[in-house]
Amino acid sequence: MKTVKLNNGVEVPILGFGTYQITDAVEAEQAVKDAITAGYRHIDTAQSYMNEEAVGRGIAASGVDRKELFITTKIWVENVSYKGVMSSFDQSLKRLGLEYVDLLLIHQPYNDVYGAWMAMEELQAQGKIKAIGVSNFGVDRVIDLAAFNDVTPQVNQIEINPFQQQSKNIEVLHKEGVAVEAWAPFAEGKNDIFNNPVLTKIGMKYEKSAAQVILRWLVEQDIIVLAKSVKPERMAQNLNIFDFELNEEDKAEIATLNQGESQFFSHSDPEMIKWMASRKMNI
């Protein structure tokens, strides 16, 4: 599989398997095992997904050597501080059954981000984390973090899909040496995306689905992308995107779908920030 090299030399499989909203423990364990069997080597979870333990069991049950896998987890808002990272990350490792993770992200741009980053730098230096980064950070926040710390974020995981394309932000992040990772590439099915006329028309040319067109569009921009499904046949389909290329006409048509706004919520909405701050998960 194609990989993206981070600014510290770590390589990330460009297609990752996302586990958001797979909350049933049995289903989550089986989904991770099936994803690895299908060919995924990059698994993404988070403290707030409440499935780290099940993800860990799925990894163990896969029988694949740990060194072949790239595992990501994220620090939730209540733990975004120096002490919070140090204590909660240890718990994440225990739940995952791992000695290290390949990527650790600050999940949301709130609380004591700078204290948390100091802790993550230390954990990375100790070899407990291969790469460190952020999620849902504006470009200005990423550059600010890089300017006043020893380590530039290696990744920013943000919402990117045909309706929220973020082209300018992607350009700036890449220029700064920060890899871009896309969550919700399918916009969680909003706006009937899988039957979108533009995407399905392009797909028909290559005998591909709308979902495959979206994933191909992202990887051609060197964007790491997370796709989720609990169906093995869909997992295999999502991986089968390396045998065709989009042309300039295709890309121009996809560009017309951009609405230029989140399909979910704004990270600058005061009420959303208050809600996240109040979401105590004791993790």
UniProtKB/TrEMBL annotation:
The record marks 74 as: Lowers pKa of active site Tyr. Its EC number is 1.1.1.218. The keyword NADP applies. The keyword NADP applies. Pfam families: Aldo_ket_red (PF00248). Substrate binds at residue 107. It comes from the Bacteria. It is an enzyme of class 1 (oxidoreductase). One of its GO terms (molecular function) is morphine 6-dehydrogenase activity. The active site is at residue 49. Keywords: NADP, Oxidoreductase. Residues 15-258 form the NADP-dependent oxidoreductase domain. Belongs to the aldo/keto reductase family. PANTHER family: 2,5-DIKETO-D-GLUCONIC ACID REDUCTASE, NADP-DEPENDENT OXIDOREDUCTASE DOMAIN-CONTAINING PROTEIN. This is Oxidoreductase, aldo/keto reductase family.
